[in-house]
Amino acid sequence: MTEHIPIEINLHKKSRLLEISFDTGETYRLTCEYLRTHGKSAEITTSDIPVSGKINVNINSIEAQGSYALRLFFDDEYDQGIYSWETLYELGKNYDENWKLYLASLDKHHLSRGESDKIHKGPAIIKILYFMDKLIAFTQEEEEFELPNETNTVQELLESLRSRGNRWKRAFAEDSIQFTVNKEFAELFTILEHGDEIALIPKAK
Q1: Where in the chain is CATH 3.10.20.30?
Q2: What are the pLDDT digits (tens) for 135-167?
Q3: CA separation (Å) from 144 to 120, 195, 200?
Q4: HSE-CB for 41 with a 13 A CA cutoff
């Protein structure tokens, strides 16, 4: 069996994702829920009943196990999962099928993923801080912005702002902008939630 070696591993706590890039050139973003419910410990693999109610689970920390695996410490106090490089690669490669089977198993046993703590009744409102005075003539330095339906990530927010017109398209081109969410640098796939503060900053030339 060919061994697949990670070359970069990043935990994105805000989005509850573990991002892993392998030496094959493939990159996978695995949700903490997926990793928690698809662990390889005996507690999980020997049970006919799937792990449920983990929609809000996050990873607190990661510990290397030699040069072959990771131990993941989840915030529900589960820390018995040792995830080998091959396990992580297979979980990424087969995500769609694994997740489909998992949801079917939950349904079969009348279980649920749990209720998301991201649910907010009413429109999700975020604050946008603009540091764009050299690129675009804004009339305000900040605004409260109601996220449109199906707008959940930084990338989708930028696309929504670009739709305001040509000067917005120029100012918020991906190669000219960087951003923070709640004062921490973020990625395009970072999930936005009600009450978040996002700062948009031009990249230095």
Answers
A1: 125-202
A2: 554 557 888 999 888 888 999 999 999 898 888
A3: 16, 10, 14
A4: 16
